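Could someone model pyridoxal-5'-phosphate with this protein?
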Amino acid sequence: MKHWPLFAAFPGLEAALQPEALAALPTPVEAIPALGAKAWIKRDDISHPVYGGNKIRKLEFVLADIRRKKSRHVITFGATGTNAGIAASMICRDAGLPCTIITFPQPETATVQQNRKWLQHFGAGLQARSSLWQAVLSFYLHPGRLRSDNYFLFAGCSNPVSTFGYLNAVFELREQIEAGLCPEPADIVVAVSSASTLAGLNLGVALAGLKSRVHGIRVAAEKLGPFAACTPAVVEKMQSDALRFMQTQGVHMPAFTLPAVNMDGTYFGSGYGEGTEKAAQAMRIMTQASGLPLESTYSGKAAAAFLDRLATATQPVLFWNTFNSRPLPQEQP
Ligand SMILES: Cc1ncc(COP(=O)(O)O)c(C=O)c1O
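Reply:
Sure, complex below.
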C-alpha cells in the first residue's frame, strides 16, 4: 500500500506539498471482537515507531512547510500535557530544530505526568504561563514574530497544510476497504479540538467518495473569549482553505458533495482536560476490549461516543484512535 494514496488520486498535489515521510503508514485497521461484529478501530496510536497519535500525519506536511520557509525554530503552544507538543518536539529534535512550547495549566492526571516525561525526553523548551489566555497572548505577541526564521505552529499542530495529513488518511482507509481489510464504516468517530483532523477526515470522505459519516466529538471549548475555537465553522474554513489550495494548484477534482460538519459537544463535560464519568467508563471498556491505553482529555470522550453509537448500530462503526500507545523509551519492557 502507498504512503500517500492522496497523490495517486490527485497527482498535481505532491509537488506542491512535498511532505516528508515521518509516519509508519498505513496504520492498521482492526476489528474489536470483544465489542461485537460492528466495532472497528483505526490504529493511529501507532502512527510512528517511537511516539504515535494523530499529530504525526499532520507533521509530515508541516515539516515540509517549515523547510520550504527555511525556518530554524518552531514555536507552538498547548496544555502542560500537550500530545501535539510531544510529537512536534520529537520531529523537531530529529530534524535538528529547537522547539519551544508555551504551556498553560490543565487538570493534573497520570497522562499529563507521563507527557511531561515525554516532553523532557525530546528536549522541548517549555515556557509556562498561568492561563490559556496568557499562553495565547505570549504566542501571538511573541517578540520572535519579527524574525522570519521562526515558525509559529498553532496548538494541536493544526495549520492549513496539516489538513492534508487527514485527507491522505481517508484515501488510506479507502485502500484498506478496497483490499477487504475492513468494511466501509457507516460512522467514523474521532475527537476534535484544534480541528484539522476532523477537517481532513470530513473533506477526505467526500473526495474519496466514501459514504461514511464522520462524527467529531468536541473536547475543547467552542470559543476562546470572543473568538470561535472549536466549532463547525472553524472546520468548514479549514476544508475550504484546503480545497482552495487544491484549486490554485490546478488539481482536477471530481464532482462531490461536502457533508455538513458534524460536531457533538455532549461528551465535553465541564471543560478542556476535565474528565467525565462517561469517559472514564469508556476508557475502562476500550482498554479491556482492545488492550490500548486511552486518556481522559480526548480519546476517552471520543470512545464514550463510539460506544454509545455502537450500542444501537446496525452498520460498522470505526473508532479513529488518535492517542499514542507507544511506551516512553526508558520504560519499554
Ligand atoms: C490524543 C488526541 N486526540 C485528538 C486530538 C484532536 O485533534 P485535533 O486537534 O486535530 O482536533 C488531539 C489534539 O490535541 C489529541 O492530542
